[in-house]
Amino acid sequence: MKTVIKTSELSKVYTNTAVPVHALKNVNLEFKEGEFTAIVGPSGSGKTTFLNVIGGLDKPTEGHVVIDDVDIATMKESQLFDFRLRHIGFVFQAYNLIPVLTAMENVSFIMLLQKKEKKEMQRRAKEMLEQVGLSDKLDVRPSQLSGGQQQRVAVARALASKPDFVLADEPTANLDTESAFNLLDIMLRLNREENITLIFSTHDQRVIEKARRVITLVDGAVDKDEYFERN
Amino acid sequence: MKTLLTLAWRNLWRKKRRTFITVSSVMFAVVLAIVLMSMVNGMKQQMIDSIISNISGHLQIQDVLYHDEPTMDHAMEYGKEVQDAVAAHDEFIEYTVPRIEGFCLASKELSTRGVYLMGVLPEKEDRMNNLLSRLKEGRMFTAEDDFVVIARGVANQLNLSVGDTIVLLGQGFQGMTAAGTYQVGGILEFPLPEQNNTLVYMPLQEAQHFFAAPGRLNSLILMLSDVSMADHLAGSIQEELDDEWYTLKTWEELMPDKVAAFEARDAQVRVFAWVLYIVAGFGIFGTIITMMYERLREFGILLSIGLKRSQLAGICMLETLFISIIGVIAGVFVGFPIVYWFYANPIQLADDLAEVMIDFGLEPFMSFSIASDIFVYQVLTIFIIALVVGLYPVRKLFRLDMISAARK
Asked: B366 and B333, same structural domain?
């Protein structure tokens, strides 16, 4: 399988604190196409920092992040904006939809920034909203949707532009059990059907139990990297 | 671009009440500024019209030295050159008013006063400043007569009545003595004391004879059909005249003290208007700052998913412009009918204020202007303020740490 992301000797030190914080220490990982990976670990273990660095939101202090044969650690901010837009999908803990846009417009938004053709964009947005079970909510604004529905729109948004991989930072943390399972089922199905690489940071046991690969970070370093057979 | 416009427009109405209050503050500032500017410009125009019709006209052709040294020696020759130059532009010139004028001593028996003698064509003068309406006793001379009409103050000081004789003594052209006795044919009344106590009118030809300056004028006043052409026309006529002998003066050049007074007053009004603009500007600024800080997390997310900083800054700038444009349009829509009503129905002044206006030779009305530049000025000013105010969020966005913003 094709390697989507490869990190080598990845380190991140925050120096703007009283004492320097080593958030990541020499992390060497590879993520293959179509993997469904959970990054787990206690609070402060570096999960979010890891996602931020491989997502091009933050720069590593040392090391490399190679995506599609490009080391994004050396990119300028303006190049990273474009790179994120074209290669990476994001799902955040607090849904983070644009409140003044409808579900359909939210899902289309990234494709719009990518300047995709209008008809294709609308077709794909509709398709994604159908996939996440919200075909009857196309013209509804986020404030009229439940938390679970908003997060499903966020997933549709992240996947609609067919990114190389999707980073999800604790996507089920704010959801009730039913909504969380519902969301996980959708993401697993999309992972299988669209062969999209999904990487989660999570504390949520429900997510961990569904992941085929679980990486445990402790104090910024990889403690365990385990593979599981799941249905 | 359409998406950015849509986002900015919808963001504006997230909190309708707040946007409404901000737009209202801009609107009221614009309305107040329009009414203020309209009133001030209207009264200024009233005064300028009065100066132009009573004193200077729109343009004057003079001897090149007359303005700096207004003596009879600098009376210009009113010959073919001047007449041809004027005739060549007659499509822009409504009419001309020739004048020869100078200080004289006037006496009757043992009383002597300094007066200002004006040699005029009565029908031209009347067309310019309604001179005949000032006539209270006797009759006005024709161009061929040889008597004078005097202002009421002169008549009182010298104890003159219609039918009496006045002796005039002055300095004529090139050292000649100007002297003569004239019958008083009529008495005029002027609102301004300096006019009422000094003016003596004489037929133009008789005055030229009196000053020993036949065929000469101190000034040829040009009244234009389109005032805005004055500067252009001055240059154009000047090209036809020998600039060694003749010069064209606009009313602003002839009345520099009045222009300075208007400029001082304009500056005061601008200060007051800018206070209004600054209040409106802070209103917009407050709203924009609040809108920005309450959406920092959203900004962080938008940047994370691929929106460029410049696009986000564009959205914020558009929001500022939308508020300003709506406020300005609303202000013009409310302000225009108000000033138009006052333009069509000037406020009639009463009591002391009316007397002051009459004393200054003005009608006792407060006039308003509906000149388009008043409205254009408001639009441009608020637009510039909006751009300046809008720079703050732009600057902030270009420095925003998207990770910490997204975590807020």
From this structure: yes
> Which of the residue ranges A22-31, B164-173, B361-370 would you say has the lowest mean pLDDT?
B361-370
Choice between B335 and B288, residue whose per-residue pLDDT is larger: B335
> At which of B194, B211, B242 does a domain end?
B242
> Comparing C-alpha atoms, which of A153, A147, A136, A174 is closest to residue A101?
A153
* Residues spanned by the domain of B7: 2-52+258-407
pLDDT tens digits, B97-130? 999 999 999 999 889 999 999 999 999 999 998 8
Residue A148 pLDDT: 86
Tokens of A66: 């190679």
Total domains, chain B: 2
**Token pair of A100, please?**
């003044």
On whether residue B249 sits in a domain, the answer given is no
Flag whether B252 is in a domain: no
Residue B218 has pLDDT above 90, yes or no: yes
Domain end point (choices B212, B242, B272): B242
Q: Do B7 and A92 touch (CB under 8 A)?
A: no
Residue of B nearest to A92 (CA): B301
Under 8 Å between Cβ of B178 and B104: yes
Which residue reads 């225009």 in tokens?
Answer: B336
Percent of chain B topping pLDDT 90: 38
Under a CB-based contact definition with an 8 Å cutoff, are residues B93 and B236 in contact? no
- The one-letter amino acid at B110: L
**Is the per-residue pLDDT at B404 higher than 90?**
no
Give the pairing of strands B76-77 and B216-217.
antiparallel
Give the residue from A52, A167, A118, A228 showing the smallest Cα distance to B404: A52
Q: At A3, is the secondary structure helix, strand, or coil?
A: strand
- Token pair for residue A227? 């593979």
Domain for residue B250, yes or no?
no
In a domain, B59, yes or no: no
CA distance B388 to B104: 61
Q: Report the gap between the CA of B10 and the closest CA in chain A (Å).
A: 6
Query: With an 8 Å Cβ cutoff, are A58 and B403 in contact?
Result: yes
Q: Whole-angstrom Cα distance, residue A170 to residue A92?
A: 7
**In chain B, which residue's Cα lies nearest the Cα of A105?**
B3
Residues B76 and B139 in one domain: yes
Q: B69 and B153, same structural domain?
A: yes
**B219, B302: one domain:** no
Say what the pLDDT of residue B5 is. 85
The percentage of chain B sitting over the pLDDT mark of 70, rounded to a whole number, equals 98
Interface test with A, best of B10, B295, B301, B305 (most A CBs within 10 A): B305
The pLDDT-based confidence of A92 (bands split at 50, 70, 90) is confident
Residues B47 and B84 in one domain: no
Q: CB of A55 within 8 Å of any CB in chain B?
A: yes
Structural domains in chain A, CATH included, are 3-227 (3.40.50.300)
- Both B394 and B304 in one domain: the answer is yes
Nearest to B402 among A57, A99, A101 (CB): A57
